Amino acid sequence: MTSDHRLAPIAPGRLPLIGHAPAMLRDRLAFLQHLRTHGPIVRIALGTKSVTVVNSPELIHQMLTARSNAFTKGLLFEKLKLFGNDALPVADGPGHLTRRRLMQPAFHREQVTGYVRTMRDTAASAIGAWREGDELDLKTEMQLIAQNIVMSTAFSTTPRPRAAHTILTSVDTLFNAALRRALLPVPLLDRIPTRYNRRLARASSTLHHVVDGIITDHRARPDDYNDVVSLLLDARDETGAPLPDDDIMSEVTGLLAAGSETAAVVMAWLFHELSRHPHLEARLHTEVDTVLAGGELTADHLPQLTFTRALVQETLRLYSPGWLVTRQTTETVRLGDYTLPAGTDVVWSPYTLHRDPGLYPDPLRFDPDRWLPNRRQPPKNAFIPFGAGKRQCIGDAFAWTEMTVVTALIASRWHLRPAPGTRPVPVGAITVHPSALRMNPEARRADGAREAA
User: Which domains, ranges and CATH numbers included, belong to the chain?
Assistant: First the structure.
């Protein structure tokens, strides 16, 4: 993304307008990174909209914490209501707090620790099917693993391979539609029965059918389940009434969608970086072999996997899945030297924040050691892959645990090598995913030597 317009002088209280940004649809990540050179807050014209971009970590923190009541979740999250109007990830206002309090018990750290065995067994089933000589589409493999993990832990079900692929394709279709509608907001086109909109309707119907089946089975056999769906079915409001069926459907669908994307792309990027840095892969293998000592991975092992976690953290920094987060002001808001009127569309980018050379030395270098205790840590509020404040992702502990478990499990069994010609570049879709990442698995022994599969 580029702009031919010069930055206008910044008068106190006024925001610079960096012309139109048609290239945002071609090179979104580069354009947002370029905007950081223009100051803490700037404006761009996106189609017919004027959008305010917040770059400063201090002002982002204000927006997400002290001033959060003055913002709704904004345009992108409005379009994500394709997954359900009132699901926690897109809910606003008092309903968000109510729903978050309802869902929180399923995501307490102690509860997440209890999911480790299911995470391990679900991932082990997938990677146990790999064979030397296979060529894996690693992003899709990781998405399927992540999707099955959230379904097995939260819904007590794991779909068959063909059904899992169908679910994943439907989720991807809806995510792509949400992003497209946010960047090219033409409401009339959303209602025309084009081929694209018909495909979108089929994807939505597929997810609705899957989730309806899960809920129906839980209702038919309530004593057989103790999971997130059970929690939603048992919930009562202040009058003692159960949650409406549409609300339950929205929550389950939203959780399924969120669980199939963020952790998956991080793990795909992590193994790409390990293939580029054999010395880091060797350190990971040494740690995993030492900690597990040939046994099955358990929750007790996680605190000892310090380098594994550092690898996850550095991947979250360099390839932060959230490249575009939206907000909209509900009242006049003062951020730093600037006043944002009510109705202002605001965006910020974890991806560009985490690659800012003013915050991270040599920011494009993959360096997991930057997170070790003896190294100077980045400034406060400079690392927020899951957001901050009352809207911080409810599933952050779940994602940290899942990524650590899956990384260690794969490292205990496989080397992953890039297929010939594979040169992935970051693409700003609903998350930052690799353009193409095909890898070949090579079996390994605990001593690091290769063996026949």
Answer: 1-85+323-347 (3.30.43.20), 92-276+389-443 (1.10.630.10)
